[in-house]
Amino acid sequence: MIAVLALEGSPRIRDRIRAGVRVGGAHELLGPVRFASAWRDLRTLVGRFPCSPTFVDPFFPSGGTSLGAFLSFRRECPQCSVICYADLNTAQLWQLAETDVVFVERLDPGANDRLSAVGSAALRGTGNREVRALVECLKRATPVSTNTLLEFVFRETVTPCSVDQLARSLGISVRTLRRRCVASEVPPPKRLISLARIFHVERLAKWSGRPSGAVALALGFSDYANYRRSVRRELGQPPSVIVRRGGPDYVASVILGKITSPASTSAS
């Protein structure tokens, strides 16, 4: 099971994290939350459980006015996938905006922290360096106009995502989304979503130690046969072969080839 780490001063937020990782797909793949008592303790946990999703209040202890301890933690643990989850005031938000820290997600109590959102954030944060590395490679190999699209595709597809949902998240129509894909010579939206979904299944299978079929079910595929058909359609081989060839690393290489090849823009 994947460890979930947290450094939070608010009892309510601690309870929300505990409950959130027991909802939906997170329940099948994530282990219990391990709470740190201080930044030093969190560094120790990150060393024991690398690439684990990590919820933090960057101003811990709650009500603090300095980001110094958090920024030191980020320098010492750059591999850590950090999810900001805190009730921040205006002054704290301004301080955070002045840094170059990139969070997997930022959850605001009472605003966007539904239990399902907490669980999804943890799944996105698991092994997130692999996701970031793939997205950055894709962005370097495609027009700048696709940057936001690629970011959103890999963000939204940890959970089931339709072309319509992807377009809404981008604030555009489905027709505009399809036109942008054609203009940028990247695969159509439906194919992008399928490729990203397969990547998420394989990377979470790697980190959880669960078979890809079980992970596919946890991430919303109706059954293993559905996932198997998706893999065969997009990659031309069954999931068992994908695992033998490197799992998420192999899927990432195929995605790079498909998205950076002009021939990838055939309709689907």
Radius of gyration based on Cα positions: 19 Å
Ends distance: 36 Å
**What is the N-to-C order of secondary-structure elements (H for helix, E for strand)?**
EHHEHEHEHEHHHHHHHHHH
- Supply the number of helical segments: 15
Largest sheet: 5 strands, parallel
Proportion of residues in extended strands:
5-15%
Uncertain spans, ≥5 residues at pLDDT below 50? 263-268
Helix content: 55-70%
How is the largest sheet built, in terms of strand order? Answer: 2-1-3-4-5
Choose one word for the global shape: globular
**By helix and strand content, what is the structural category?**
alpha/beta
Number of strands: 5
What is the residue-averaged pLDDT?
Answer: 91
Describe this structure in words.
It is a single chain. The chain is built from 15 helices and 5 strands. It has helices at residues 11-20, 24-29, 39-48, 68-76, 90-97, 115-125, 128-141, 147-156, 163-170, 174-184, 189-208, 212-218, 224-235, 239-244, 248-260; strands at residues 2-7, 30-35, 53-56, 81-85, 105-107. The protein has a 5-stranded parallel β-sheet, sandwiched between helices. Helix 11 crosses helix 13 (224-235). The longest helix has 20 residues, at 189-208. It is globular and about 50 Å long.
